[in-house]
Automatic annotation (TrEMBL):
Biological-process GO terms, alphabetical: iron coordination entity transport
Protein name per the record: Iron complex transport system substrate-binding protein
Pfam families with a match to the protein in the record: Peripla_BP_2
Recorded family membership: Belongs to the bacterial solute-binding protein 8 family.
Originating organism: Roseivivax sediminis
Keywords carried by this UniProt record: Ion transport, Iron, Iron transport, Signal, Transport
Gene3D superfamilies xrefs: Nitrogenase molybdenum iron protein domain
SUPFAM superfamilies linked to this entry: Helical backbone' metal receptor
Amino acid sequence: MRLIALALSAAIAAAPAWSETTRIETATGTAEVPANPASTVVFDMAALDTLDALEVPGLASIGNTYLDYLSDYEGEAGTLFEPDFEALNAMQPDLVILGGRSAEQVEPVSRLAPAIDMTIWGEDILGQARDRITSYGALYDRADAAEALLAQIDDAIANVQAAAEGQGDALIVLTNGPKVSAYGAGSRFGWLHAASGLPEAAEGLDASTHGEAVSFEFIREVNPDWLIVIDRGAAIGAESQSARSTLDNPLVRETAAWQNDRIVYLDAARVYIAGGGAQATLDTLGILEDALAGGKS
């Protein structure tokens, strides 16, 4: 703790006075930050995903981004949850972006460098994702690229909704080894219903962070036309039972989704770790569109 305190004190003493700033919208309201920062440390993977899509230079991140396409940014800044304050002090970034799992660290990090919370969470993931793209476009002088990215997302949503027409309902489940939780329209994964237009196979599910724990009997009784699956173990690189193994049992096999080969295994890391990131959103919509188009009779 003494080393952290020393690092904070040194950073405060050496903090530069920014000659040019801009105001952007964050998860906690409007913030004034350095305009077009040359160096940015990013702890939130949805933010890093979108900044990468916008081709923002000068990015650095944590030791494990969990996503292959973001691995080039891996560094010594800390983890998804905990910044390395000494490393941050040595890096002297113009801006630090936190969010989600690291959101509680905004205040202590702000003593080292300008820091903002860009969390994407809750029911309106797509709306928040759009807001973040717009904010980053303004912050990094990438407004044209941001506008093009938003247009791509609009096109992808239109395509997946067209593919979903007349395709029945869906149940979203997350597996964690042998355990299964279900998520409804009001949950962190509810944007999959909003984006695709697929109605809920089971209404009234718990909208909490961890979803509603369900049994295989529940899945059979709900009998979804589509089963959309997120494998938490695969997302975090855990050595656990896979979603395919977990769901391969007699009860799930009785569902319309299983019998019609309408089980969609999403890229778990993109949805679970980088949910709301522009590329993660586009890739997920692409997987849904391909699956739904293949399910057309």
